[in-house]
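Intended use. Records like the one below are meant for learning the mapping from a protein sequence to its folded structure. Do not use them to infer anything beyond what is encoded.
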Amino acid sequence: MKKIYLSLFALLGVFTLNAQLTLTKAANEPIIGDLDKRTEYDSTVVIPKNTGTGQVWNFTTMITTTATGSYTTAYINPTSAPNASLFPTATIATNELGGNNYEFYRSNGSLYDYVGRYDGGGPELMVFSNHGTMRSWPISYGSNSTDSWSAILTVTSGSMSMVGNITVTATGSGTVILPNGKTHTNCLQVVETISMTVTSGTVVLPGHFKNYYYYSSTNKLPVFEVAYEKFGTDPLKVNTSANTDALYTSVEENAVMVESAILFPNPAKDVLHISNPSNETISSIEVMDLQGRNVLSMDYANSINVGVLEQGLYVLKLNYRDKVVYQRFVKAN
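Structure written out for the chain above:
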């Protein structure tokens, strides 16, 4: 009887390993406090976008250039973002740390909707009168959803109306090989197509965005992204990036990167200590709130007085000689 049970467990194990990935609200929808760390790449060859089951998407031809960068997007409480009152239905917002661009979203049951955007650099303000659904959970191979949306975009030169559609389709499953050779199996290719028409007076301009997201069963956020943007007569823009955490070749190596500095106690009331077991050189440290604002900055030290900070979630930025690492900590009362 024991051998029969073992055989059944083995069969169940094979079934589990071969089952295609399904994205769910609980496992894949961002929540306040999440950080999306990205490393950008360029390409001199055709970027793989093949569809269907059993695919292999090999991105090892992607290269780093002098223009290659890295950035981190924080998911924050929308009420702490500028002009939050214009987006009363938003339940979460994003901000690229160090920047002044904020995007607002609404988690509504099985739907994850785009609510609007504020860019303080323009400034630009986009407020949706009809939200656009970005994700309809769950998503598995063959899933398809389409939603119409409308918004008003306000810039320094005036306002313009925008209407369009968002179509999200899960078009492939298989294996992703990241630029550094790290392999992720049991992945799902999700294609997001956004079409729009922008009207300003008598001027009407088309816009088209097509984004390829590659989700892995081991990561909450996409491990690789390919984004195409075409607006009006502007040339086509292409942006590719990998999830920085997903680039590491093993769980152990990833842990070394994330814990290259260990923060304790966390939460911290008065003093946050920093342990640097790798002994890599850290030149300076910064503390940022979830709006990307720098609230503390200093040369590297093994402790920080955080007693002056308000209670909440913060991001510690450690500037190494050849990399930047972000880690979260909580300031307690």
